[in-house]
Specification:
Blueprint (H helix, E strand, L loop, with lengths): L3 E4 L2 H9 L10 H5 L5 E8 L5 E11 L6 E5 L12 H15 L1 E6 L4 E6 H9 L13 E2 L1 H13 L2 E2 L15 E6 L5 H7 L2 H13 L2 E5 L4 H15 L6 H14 L4 E8 L2 E11 L2 E9 L8 H15 L4 E6 L11 H8 L4 E5 L3 E4 L2 H12 L2
Parallel strand pairs: 4-5, 13-14
Antiparallel strand pairs: 1-2, 2-3, 3-4, 5-16, 6-7, 6-15, 8-16, 9-14, 9-15, 10-11, 11-12, 12-13
InterPro entries: Acyl_CoA_acyltransferase (IPR016181), FEMABX (IPR003447), PG_Glycine_Bridge_Synth (IPR050644)
Organism: Streptomyces pharetrae CZA14
Pfam family, one: FemAB
Length: 373
């Protein structure tokens, strides 16, 4: 089978993505609208009979002072990653992007490699010999992921190091935490929470914490808490216009694509979070909270309300996004990992992101630029 890659309309792209049970929120057309520093294109894969069999959102970032681009497909493209002719899917994409002016291509195959149960992660955290999650025996492994990785290497793809998403340092988390919802009742999901989580949800209810959905006008309140969270957890916050642009772009495509939740107590918002939905996959995207009145457990109340709404909406997976791979006690992100483990879900490792240098000189220059930042 041979495939042809060419630009497709937003409408074709969206129809293809929404016809599938699970596609990353970074692989729908509206995600490109949320990234004004990148030029977005929708690409389609057609088979010999002209049928659309794959799609991908590619973001193009120009190299300073040159009309050459870094091409980035976050958590994509959406193709048949189990295909025995995987090379035939990727070669025409590389050819098109090279013709388009790309000097390097980065993609994130949505292929799961390993899974660890909540019990396995909890045991790893408690084990002083376990330095990283990847060094701990997985609860389940996906053999096909190793085959995909081997094929990519033989084609000349290189696994990239994890990074941020600032400027050229595009990158998505390789390790995430997910709660499977498919085939489970809400009560079964609640029973899957650890005792501390269930206790904290009851504390919040007794204290009078109320979780409500917010609107565009509430984004500044969310952002104030988010900036406070960034100072506390030592990361660089995104500006308010980023979230306002996300809200406008994503909800223009689908009113349920993005939601905002706020946890109120005694007239004050103590915690807030954004939730993204594509098909049967729901993501807890950005979270924020104040250090005040933490004893009323607003974060547990907030997450439980989001999980309840996701379940009611037919979600098969509730995704709490990135987790740290480092398990040492001095890792400041370990507390967040413990919080997510309390949901009773599982740690999931994807294949990570892969680079293909179309122009080795420019690609090397980019690596040098990033290493000096």
């Amino acid at each position: 089978m041979s495939y042809r890659v060419k630009p497709i309309s937003r409408e074709e792209h969206l129809a293809f993505a929404t016809a599938r049970p699970a596609v990353s929120h970074m692989q729908v057309p509206s995600w490109g609208d949320a990234k004004p520093d990148w030029r977005a294109e929708s690409l389609g894969w057609s088979d010999d009979e002209g049928r659309l069999v794959g799609a991908g959102l590619v973001l193009l970032r120009p190299l300073p002072k040159l009309r050459r681009y870094l091409a980035y497909l976050p958590e994509g493209p959406v193709i048949d990653w189990t295909a025995t002719d995987l090379e035939e899917w990727l070669r025409p994409m590389l050819a098109y992007l090279k013709e388009r002016g790309a000097f390097s291509v980065r993609m994130g195959p949505p292929v799961v490699a390993r899974r660890w149960s909540a019990e396995a992660v909890k045991a790893a955290i408690a084990d002083p010999r376990a330095g990283r999650l990847r060094d701990v025996a997985a609860t389940a492994e996906e053999p096909r992921a190793l085959d995909v990785a081997d094929r990519l290497r033989r084609m000349g793809w290189r696994q990239s190091e994890p990074g941020g998403e600032d400027g050229f340092a595009a990158g998505q988390p390789r390790h995430v935490f997910q709660v499977p919802f498919a085939g489970r009742s809400l009560e079964e999901i609640r029973q899957g929470l650890n005792q501390q989580w269930r206790r904290n949800i009851k504390k919040a209810e007794k204290a009078g914490v109320k979780v409500v959905q917010g609107g565009y006008e509430d984004l500044p309140v969310f952002h104030d808490l988010y900036v406070e969270t960034a100072e506390r957890d030592r990361f660089v916050p995104r500006p308010l216009p980023y979230f306002q642009r996300m809200w406008t772009a994503l909800r223009a495509e689908d009113a349920d694509r993005m939601r905002l939740y706020l946890a109120h107590h005694d007239g004050e918002v103590l915690a807030a979070a954004t939730m993204l939905t594509v098909g049967e996959h729901v993501w807890y995207s950005y979270g924020a909270s104040t250090g005040r009145r933490r004893e009323v457990q607003p974060n547990n109340a907030l997450q439980w309300r989001m999980m309840c709404d996701a379940h009611e909406g037919g979600a098969a997976v509730y995704d709490l996004r990135g987790i740290t791979d480092t398990l040492e006690d001095d890792n400041h992100l370990l507390g967040l990992l413990r919080f997510k483990v309390g949901t009773g879900g599982e740690a999931v490792e994807y294949l990570g992101e892969w680079d293909y240098p179309l122009n080795r000189l420019l690609h090397k220059a980019l690596d040098l630029y990033l290493s000096r930042r």
